[in-house]
Amino acid sequence: MRIRDEEKTKLVKEKAIELIVTHGLEGFSMNKLAKACSISVATLYIYYKDRDDLIITIAVEEGNKMGTAMIADFDPEMSLEEGLRKQWENRCNYSINNPMMSLFFDQLRSSSYQQEFLASFLKEFKTVVGKFMHNIIQRGEIDKMPFEVYWSIAFAPLYNLIRFHNEGKSMGGRPFKLTDEILWQTFDLALKALKK
Fold first, then answer.
1. Which residues form the signal peptide (predicted)?
2. Which of 32, 58, 157, 162 has the most CB within a 10 Å radius?
């Protein structure tokens, strides 16, 4: 049995992500991946059972990295403003430093791989954020609301700014670069909308 070559494994993952982002999940195949990596298709099957195994493996590994990045230095005991600010900082840094992963995750969110992707990082993340939500409601900092409402107000503005930044343009094609001033101005508005 051949030993896994870690450099080759890294190349396979990078090229798989790149191909999925560029061509979508429908346009992704093990043959295209092997060609992009300049290896044989048989070599891919040493590392992964099949296409699904490859995609799920990447989703779980990268989802865990993203989840860890999102709760770095975050404490569920933080105030609404402090905790939300830390979340914005973590999410923004992760997304801007990993633009290809953000696009890859977007592909997964609207696919049959969504469950595996979400399960990969949601367990710990959900616990920490759940405690945070409980605490800010108990302290009377926000009204009780469905999580989807909270998320839409708290994070949708951030992810739109990141998307504009990663695309280099905003609505109507105007050039756009996310600055600290724009980021925190938007944050203040989102915070104001959530606060009691």
1. none
2. 58
Taking Cα atoms as reference points, which of 46, 53, 50, 39 lies closest to residue 4?
46
Quickly count helices (H) and strands (E) in the chain. 10, 0
- Give the pLDDT confidence of 100-142 residue by residue, as tens digits: 998 998 888 888 888 877 776 677 788 898 999 999 999 999 9
Q: Scan for tokens 């230095």, then name that residue.
A: 73
Q: Which CATH number fits domain 1-48: 1.20.1070.10, 1.10.10.60, 3.40.50.2300, 3.30.70.980?
A: 1.10.10.60
Query: What's the 3-state SS for 96-164?
Result: HHCHHHHHHHHHHHCCCCHHHHHHHHHHHHHHHHHHHHHHHHHCCCCCCCCHHHHHHHHCHHHHHHHHH
The number of angstroms, rounded, from the C-alpha of 187 to the middle of its chain's C-alpha atoms is 19
